[in-house]
Amino acid sequence: MTRLAFRSLGLAIALILGAADLSAQEKLWPPDGVGDEQLYQKAQQEAEFKSATARMGEFRRGVRAMADDAEGNKAALAKAARYYVYRLTSAIYHGTDSGTASIIGMNSLVSEASAALLVPEARKKQPPLNENQKKYLAELTREMHKALREVFKTNRAPVVRVNAARMLAAVAEAGNEESIDTLIALLQDPDESDAVRLFALRGLKEALAYGTPEKSAIQTEARELAAIAAAQAFLTRKIKEMPTEPEKVEALRYLRREAVRALAASRHATMPKSKDEAGRTAWWLLKVARKDGLTPESSLTEQVEGAIGACQLNPSKDLNLDYVAYHVGGAIVDFAAEFARKKGGDDAGVSWKIYAARLLAGLDDLQSHAKGTKSEAYVNEMAGKARLVLQPIEAGKPTGDPGPFQNWLRSKAPTNTTVYNGVADSTIKAVE
Questions:
Q1: What number is the average pLDDT over the span 134-142?
Q2: Which candidate in 18, 77, 271, 313 could, as Cys together with 279 as Cys, close a disulfide (CB 3.0–4.6 Å)?
Q3: Are 74 and 49 in contact (CB under 8 A)?
Q4: Residue 420, SS3?
Q5: Is the pTM for the entire model greater than 0.85?
Q6: Per-residue pLDDT tens for 111-127?
Q7: CA 321, CA 304: separation in Å to the nearest integer?
Q8: Poorest-confidence range of 36-45, 76-85, 220-229?
Q9: How confident is residue 194, by pLDDT bands cut at 50, 70 and 90?
Q10: DSSP state, 215?
């Protein structure tokens, strides 16, 4: 899956958002009168762990086993975890007061922690992490998660909480399952800022994406389903007071797009053990893709993420892939029409070539899922016509007229009329 670079504008946008109408499972917001002045002192006291950089380097390269000096290694990793996390609480890294900012900023602290968590190596997947590295990560992430929870419970400062959430997302990406519970708690806490929720959603997305396209690496099914349910609930959350300022509306969409991406990483067309619309992952992604029923209406980038996600989901036996293909085609029409209107220029964070390439890859996934099914012929025909629209955009050419493709969608509706067979209310608005 292509990863788009995080734009600094996104964090600024997220910071202006208000609280959502969600009930919290667990409070990670510190009560009045609680401070954490001692946390940074702990980090300072443990700074000597840096003298063990050779040991840390051996862990990261996978040439040192945890079993060698097991107690000493665990103690060293616990000390390192607290050092990485507790530094976030010190004002010398915040740069808010003249004369107090150090050369190293918060971004550097998060980057150092991500490097220790082997996030860059895990993303490359080649070569895969060896057993020594996996055991090292299991111990380090356990201790970092523990320290991050302490920070969330003792520090109100927005700059600390946002960067702690960024670090927690990296812990989740490194495979720590307990962090999923904390991410959900942050997402659902009505007192939490949407800037923190942004990274909580990113962490859930990374946790859900961890594994193979066919199977999640999350060992506890209940935890996996809770993560999916939390992302879906956030996607459809009711905003107490809808803003009127365009930039705040776009901020809501920017944040909501992360929930779309998390659902797209969930693999399930229908959430296991779900008996109502809350578990209809494919349906919700298609509603996003087709601007159907969400407030505010889906942005173009949300539409594209929803369409790509719907293509990637592993189909359930009751999923009507021809109906999915029809609505993915509708989202592609909207994408190409906006490309033509903008004459291919970047606007509102739309990276046309990248999105076109990802949509083309999504069509490959959809065709693979449809192979050997009754929907195969329709899906293949739709995909062939959609490629004629997307390929010029991917090549950066000022073409990609969606008119003929749109007319085909209007004239050739799929045989099935619902997302799920036998679920009459799993419908999406028709292509206009």
A1: 96
A2: 271
A3: no
A4: strand
A5: yes
A6: 999 999 999 888 877 78
A7: 18
A8: 36-45
A9: very high
A10: S
* CB within 8 Å of 102: residues ≥ 6 apart: 92, 93
Element (H, E) at 168: helix 158-173
Burial per residue of 284-298, b for 16 or more beta-carbon CB atoms within 10 angstroms, e otherwise: bbbbbbbbbebebeb
| HSE-CB for 178 with a 13 A CA cutoff | 12
CB atoms near residue 29 (< 10 Å) = 20
pLDDT tops 60 at residue 349:
no
What is the C-alpha to C-alpha distance for residues 200 and 179, in angstroms, rounded to an integer? 10
Q: What DSSP letter does each residue of 268-298 carry, written as one string?
A: BSS-TT--SGGG-HHHHHHHHHTT-S-SSPP
List Cα–Cα distances, 97 to 167, 213, 346, 430, in angstroms. 23, 47, 36, 56
Sorted by sequence, the CB contacts under 8 Å of residue 177 that are 6+ apart come out as 207, 218, 219, 220, 223
Secondary structure of 382-412 in HEC code, one letter for each residue: HHHHHHHHHHHHHCCCCCCCCHHHHHHHHHC
Size of the chain in residues: 432
Token pair recorded at residue 367:
């065709």
Distance of CA 253 to the CA centre of its chain: 14
Cis peptide before 30 (omega within 30 of 0): no
